[in-house]
Amino acid sequence: xxxxxxxxxxxxxxxxxxxxxxxxxxxxxxxxxxxxxxxxxxxxxxxxxxxxxxxxxxxxxxxxxxxxxxxxxxxxxxxxxxxxxxxxxxxxxxxxxxxxxxxxxxxxxxxxxxxxxxxxxxxxxxxxxxxxxxxxxxxxxxxxxxxxxxxxxxxxxxxxxxxxxxxxxxxxxxxxxxxxxxxxxxxxxxxxxxxxxxxxxxxxxxxxxxxxxxxxxxxxxxxxxxxxxxxxxxxxxxxxxxxxxxxxxxxxxxxxxxxxxxxxxxxxxxxxxxxxxxxxxxxxxxxxxxxxxxxxxxxxxxxxxxxxxxxxxxxxxxxxxxxxxxxxxxxxxxxxxxxxxxxxxxxxxxxxxxxxxxxxxxxxxxxxxxxxxxxxxxxxxxxxxxxxxxxxxxxxxxxx
Amino acid sequence: xxxxxxxxxxxxxxxxxxxxxxxxxxxxxxxxxxxxxxxxxxxxxxxxxxxxxxxxxxxxxxxxxxxxxxxxxxxxxxxxxxxxxxxxxxxxxxxxxxxxxxxxxxxxxxxxxxxxxxxxxxxxxxxxxxxxxxxxxxxxxxxxxxxxxxxxxxxxxxxxxxxxxxxxxxxxxxxxxxxxxxxxxxxxxxxxxxxxxxxxxxxxxxxxxxxxxxxxxxxxxxxxxxxxxxxxxxxxxxxxxxxxxxxxxxxxxxxxxxxxxxxxxxxxxxxxxxxxxxxxxxxxxxxxxxxxxxxxxxxxxxxxxxxxxxxxxxxxxxxxxxxxxxxxxxxxxxxxxxxxxxxxxxxxxxxxxxxxxxxxxxxxxxxxxxxxxxxxxxxxxxxxxxxxxxxxxxxxxxxxxxxxxxxxxxxxxxxxxxxxxxxxxxxxxxxxxxxxxxxxxxxxxxxxxxxxxxxxxxxxxxxxxxxxxxxxxxxxxxxxxxxxxxxxxxxxxxxxxxxxxxxxxxxxxxxxxxxxxxxxxxxxxxxxxxxxxxxxxxxxxxxxxxxxxxxxxxxxxxxxxxxxxxxxxxxxxxxxxxxxxxxxxxxxxxxxxxxxxxxxxxxxxxxxxxxxxxxxxxxxxxxxxxxxxxxxxxxxxxxxxxxxxxxxxxxxxxxxxxxxx
Lengths: 400, 661
What we know:
The structure holds 2 protein chains of 2 kinds.
Chain A: H1 4-25, H2 34-54, H3 60-78, H4 89-114, H5 124-129, H6 137-150, H7 155-168, H8 171-185, H9 189-202, H10 209-221, H11 226-238, H12 242-255, H13 263-273, H14 294-299, H15 313-344, H16 349-362, H17 365-378, H18 383-396
Chain B: H1 2-30, H2 33-36, H3 39-62, H4 69-74, H5 81-86, H6 92-113, H7 119-143, H8 168-196, H9 201-232, H10 243-268, H11 272-294, H12 301-306, H13 309-332, H14 347-379, H15 387-404, H16 407-410, H17 418-424, H18 426-442, H19 448-472, H20 479-488, H21 491-516, E1 518-524, E2 529-532, E3 535-546, E4 551-561, E5 564-576, E6 581-585, E7 587-591, E8 594-603, E9 609-616, H22 620-638, H23 650-655
Antiparallel strand pairs in B: 1-9, 2-3, 3-4, 4-5, 5-6, 7-8, 8-9
Helix pairs in contact in B: 1-3, 1-7, 3-6, 6-7, 6-8, 7-8, 7-13, 8-9, 8-10, 8-11, 9-10, 9-22, 10-11, 10-14, 11-13, 14-15, 18-19, 19-20, 19-21, 21-22
């Protein structure tokens, strides 16, 4: 979008700049010579001495001495020639041509390199008051952020915001938003997998401990979650557990429907491990809509340089069989670590609620209820906390 | 749109600066009055375009236009308006814009008010100004474009560095730049004189007031910066001999020397070559200061070497202007006509003494600042030249200088009478001795040197007053006549006396603060009391507060003086969410000229707070002294009379008896 007024303004400015040079060139003038200027100064000095003497600031002797000195300076100037002037139309024309050519040329040339006339100005107030047409994502995000800081328990808001953050490259913010969504709306396989994904992207493609936990949680909630399982395989590969990685990915390929878009990714990954991809399973499964994450596609996984030698096919088979148990062991480990931490630091309301939710998800209603009771004990007298605990109890369908 | 207009105005400004550099100089070389006449209108147009670009930059800051990279990096929509404006120059690009804006403003003023200048001088001086403008506009456009844009603007900026979110940023850099860049006028005139090979009578009339104005701004700028560092950084120190501070001190010292030298030149037509050299040196030191602060060379010589685009550009500017200026000086200085003669003991002689000491002090600071950088660049060894070096060299040079200061203005031009001056300073010296003895007695015979220096401060103050009293003839003529003569004393003489008096005031402040400060460092809980001097401070409470874009933990202390409640003092730590940075806000209570200074550290989990309380006797005199100096400069500047140093006729020296007591 290039605006006409902008270029009209540019043209006017150029004209002013050129005129600033042409105008003085068009006027005939006489130079004020050095001799003339010097004499003017000395005459002023003499007048000043007279004034000082009259005002009593100089004694007659001092005034006399000063006058002699100034007169000496006047005499020194007096002998010089009058100024020789040599105004030349040729030089004047040359200067005018330089101004006419150089100023617009340099102006346009440099501006073409530096300027961005196509980008409209964007004062914040204007952007905030403009109709929300979705063209200014940053402002939409800001609006949602403002809404969320006023309504910090709007889980839907975080759920909407998180992927936008991720697309804008604000990965830490995206992770924070996913955590909020999980806290408020409860964990689902999609949310946990998405959280794990942005954490991985934020760590330059390394599946961190935290991300792996999120993927494990997602996989435990939906054993067929594509994204989570892919990343768990990646985590295994990065940890040097190549057999585990091969097992996870082989299993996924086996489960995958023939036309699944993520098959090539898995085949590449398996090829990286030196494993022959198995033939596609005949009964097509309903695939969850999980596109290949941009982070994985662009950054690519980092293979640990000291990865263990390739696993035997027996290892792969064993790993494939063990996977579900390993998963639940991982989840249980996570939950018990949370329990231990909360026993040591009970002043963590979010932690307690997460624990209750985890037990609830794992099907142990009694332990979930116990976690809420502990939270109540830790936050006795805190109304806000009490409300949240009750809300969580409702959410989880516990007690009354 | 505004940003693009600003960008284009800046580009056109570069084109005009090129014209201003070339055409008038060509005209001067060819004696063509029309070409020389181009200088004025182009300088005014340059000012117009640079002002427009600068205003455009301020406008995009004020409206939080985050399509401009510079705004995103340094502004935040929740900052108060004043900091939105000041953050314009609170960063590299913007501060260079301010630099060029001030430069263009000075050039415009020469163009507008230089009507009485000879044409060739004006044309050449403006051409040099044009060259400086060309260099810095090129630097901005090619390495530090403030108007770079973003296609998809973010909705919030990264905020100004919290340490800079202070009214100090509104005052300190503009003042400092007015000082730095004001010296460019003296430089341009010096170069013009060297090109011409002659110094016009109008030369001195021009250079002195412009140097004086620059000096006043520089004085205030440095004092403001010192006070800002004092209250904001939480250390309670007012001068650190930090390279950034030294970068501003060196031009100040050179400008002070230039100023005194220009007085001799204006009044007595002497010391011309000296004045030219000092004019070149003063602005060169300004440029070096800019280089030190802006190139990143201070952070690390190696960081500078690894990302050298800006540094090398500035280094190029430095070489051209400093090297070129000094080379021209070496080639042409010999052709300049020497001025009036004078005896060693005379006002001129005293000013030469002053210049030698100031120049030597500048050299000391220069070596102390640049030697570590040079050493690191050459040998990789990192050394720090600290206060001991500067106190010894700089202090050692400045003390004899200030001790001799009261003598200078009392000496006559051309040939003076040192003994007579000494007699006239007897009263001042007596007062000084009494002050020293009283100080030593009152402080229980503390550091002897401190008491002596307090005496010296009093000597300077009394000496400055003596000069005015002498001019009015107080004590020698009837009161009515003295009053009339007092009113007739020219403003510039008052200016000298007031500025010199300011040095004494400043010295007393420095000595008191260094010698008799009290300090308590403690870890306290609410309810604890600590005593300092005659005051007890009780930690009353710790509060949470919030500002427009920060939250603060504020510690409130009740002050009791002799058991009587005497108000409170608060210090806080501010947390700025946008940058995840904390700043300390020290609590200061002023009693007369002394201050109680409180700063707090981190809280410990068990509720303890580390605090540092300092009693700083007469500390404000340090900055008030600088303000007094600046007022003196302003008085002298307000005196628009012509200056003719009336020499005392030689015969009177023999005839005159010793001055009456």
